[in-house]
Amino acid sequence: MNILSVFLIIFFTKLILDLFLDVLNLKAITKTNKIPDYLHGYLSEEDFSKTVKYTVSKEKFSLLQTFCQAIVLLGFIFSGIFGKVEVFLNQWGLPLYIEGIIFIYIFSFILSFLMFPFSVYFEFVIEKKYGFSNMTARMFITDIIKSTIIGIIISFPLLLALFWFVDRTGDLWWIFAFIFTAIFQIILMILYPLVIAPIFNKFQKLEEGSLTERLFKLASKLDFNISGIFKMDGSKRSRHSNAYFTGIGKSKRIVLFDTLLNLLGDNEIEAVLAHEIGHYKKRHVIQIITFSLAVVFCGFFIISLLLNYEPLFAAFGFAGSSTYGIITLIMLYSSPFTFLLAPLFNFFSRKNEYEADRFAVLAVENKESLKNALLKLGKDNLSNPVPHPLYSFFYYSHPVLSERLKAIEKITV
Fold first, then answer.
1. Is 368 in the active site?
2. Which of 287, 305, 311, 390 is paired with 199 by a 20 to 30 Å CA distance?
3. pLDDT tens for residues 45-65?
4. What is the pTM of this model?
5. Taking a C-beta distance cutoff of 8 angstroms, is the pair 251, 235 a contact?
């Protein structure tokens, strides 16, 4: 059995599992004809009906998108386009590093272009239909342009450095490349809240008032130093509500969507803030960084083994082994091989959410504030109240709402 056959078996196994899990989740919600017990008295029949329809729409969309993306990726292989583009670029006599970067960008652009209609449909049909999207066509296109420019600015020096390490540092290039990438990633984490995020949204420190005073008092009580608690104008794009912790060192900050501030009461916002602080105090950020760097380290080691494996490149139509070739293959086709990492990562993510919930409940010294916040967020975001257990195991980074509420109820205040 040749290398391409092995790859296709793994590729189709992952595709079938993806589609199977989507179908399971679709059946789970369509078979639910009554409001779950834990939402009785909180969710109306109309709200529940809307939630079911929204979930069904998203699952059907996911099924179609997954299938079509698989066709595109298989098309790349069987059309021989990798080799054709390689030959085309060779004719231009460009420096090898630049040729490699252009090659990677070409396939990144082709995939994005072919999947573009799905982004448009989801944003302007599904999200608009259920009252979430406030996006305009102009804003949508502007976001794409901004993302593309930022992506090039970030990826160009990174790719250039990787090519240089492969070319100049011998068999141990992957160790030097990992160290450089790790430093690069940490710098980006520092810069993201200060430089990148403000390109897309406005961030304002919470206005002086009782809520702000209350939140800073909580932060002080929990010995949490932050540059500020910020309100983000998320509503200009979407009605979805959220809050998150970002940055490291002096750049760390708590960000609250304006939609969340409009949705929740002061007690509930305080509980949400305590939850986000809990992620930091429980060292979840360090855990995520460590796990991420471990994956990158293993990834570079695997690339170093594959880089000189000629049959792999021949199977995908390349003239020979190349750094840009292996990076392109990893970029497009690594998901079938990393698929099993997703449930592992999500397992630890859900564990961290339970820990942050516990931290928040003990910090605000009551259970109801966080429970009410989660219920309101679930209702407002039309979150699926009955996902299939296998689906949530593979894909959910946060616990299912019913399990989360049960865990909170068990906490002794």
1. no
2. 287
3. 999 999 999 999 999 999 999
4. 0.89
5. no
Structure tokens at 237: 């794009």
The residues facing 203 across adjacent strands are: 232
Nearest one of 50, 64, 82, 79 to 22, comparing CA atoms:
64
Residue among 123, 270, 276, 353 flagged as catalytic: 276
Summarised one tens digit per residue, pLDDT across range 290-323 is: 988 999 999 999 999 999 899 999 999 998 899 9
The structural domains of the chain, with segments of one domain joined by +, span 3-193+286-344
Tokens 């630890």 belong to residue = 348
Q: pLDDT, tens digit, for every residue of 153-184?
A: 999 999 999 999 999 998 899 999 999 999 99
Q: Which of 18, 59, 357, 380 is catalytic?
A: 357
Residue 243 bridge partners (DSSP): 256
Whether 268 is catalytic is no
- Quote the CA–CA distance of 145 and 142 in Å, as a whole number: 5
What is the rounded distance in angstroms from the CA atom of residue 308 to the CA atom of residue 185?
A: 27
Instruction: Provide the CA 365 distance to its chain's centre, in angstroms.
Output: 32
Are the beta carbons of 363 and 221 closer than 8 angstroms?
yes
